[in-house]
């Protein structure tokens, strides 16, 4: 398996993979594949990596800029991260998360936020805290990781492409 940046010709396969990965999940609103497309069209898909095995895409992760109420720069949001059914639980998602966070640091990112399972994301250095919040998200599911300096205080916002066409 290789991890690499997405290529233009990967877009349709990433969409299908993401849709399949979230199909039937009780926490999904079935729009995760649309999030990736909207971020790509808005040209804010800052980092998009795929896992390729024997010529087929088996996983994908996206990172995009987030806005912080204090004006801090170079913060990113992780998500979605997807692994095709049948290959979940093999460590593909974890490999994508580790590589993505490493690449973000290499780009000079100040930190990263994610909404998700705390038990999963804590393994990668994310923590719950009270200083930075995301509207309408229970604090235990909103996790942060500062790469440089402390976690800023205030509110965070994912790019509008997470929620609608922009």
Polypeptide structure, described:
The structure is a single chain. It is built from four helices and eight strands. It is of the alpha+beta class and 166 residues long. It has a single domain (2-162), classed as Gcn5-related N-acetyltransferase (GNAT) (Aminopeptidase, 3-Layer(aba) Sandwich). Strands 1, 2, 3, 4, 5, 6, 7 and 8 form an eight-stranded mixed β-sheet that branches. A hairpin with a 6-residue loop joins strand 3 (56-68) and strand 4. Helix 1 (11-22) runs antiparallel to helix 2. The mean pLDDT is 94.
Task: Provide mean pLDDT, rounded.
Answer: 94
**CATH-assigned homologous superfamily:** Gcn5-related N-acetyltransferase (GNAT)
Distance between the termini: 34 Å
What would the principal axes of the Cα set say about the shape?
globular
Label the CATH architecture.
3-Layer(aba) Sandwich
- SSE string, helix = H, strand = E? EHHEEEHEHEEE
DSSP summary: helix tally: 4
In the residues, how many domains can be counted?
1
In terms of quaternary structure, the protein is single chain
Strand content: 25-35%
**Rg from C-alpha positions?**
15 Å
CATH topology grouping: Aminopeptidase
For the report, how would you describe the main beta sheet? 8 strands, mixed
Q: Low-confidence runs (pLDDT<50, min 5 residues)?
A: none
């Amino acid at each position: 398996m290789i991890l690499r940046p997405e290529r233009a010709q990967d877009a349709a396969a990433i969409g299908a993979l993401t849709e399949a990965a979230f199909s039937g999940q009780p926490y999904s609103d079935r729009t995760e594949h649309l999030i990736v497309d909207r971020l790509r069209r808005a040209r804010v898909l800052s980092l998009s990596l795929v896992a390729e095995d024997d010529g087929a895409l088996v996983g994908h992760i996206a990172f995009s800029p987030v806005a912080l109420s204090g004006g801090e720069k170079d913060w990113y949001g992780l998500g979605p991260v997807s692994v095709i059914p049948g290959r979940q639980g093999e460590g593909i998602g974890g490999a994508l998360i580790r590589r993505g966070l490493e690449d973000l640091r290499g780009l000079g990112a100040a930190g990263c936020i994610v909404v998700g399972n705390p038990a999963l994301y804590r393994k990668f250095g994310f923590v719950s805290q009270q200083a930075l919040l995301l509207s309408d998200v229970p604090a235990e599911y909103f996790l942060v990781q500062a790469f440089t300096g402390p976690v800023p205080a205030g509110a965070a916002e994912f790019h509008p492409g997470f929620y609608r066409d922009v």
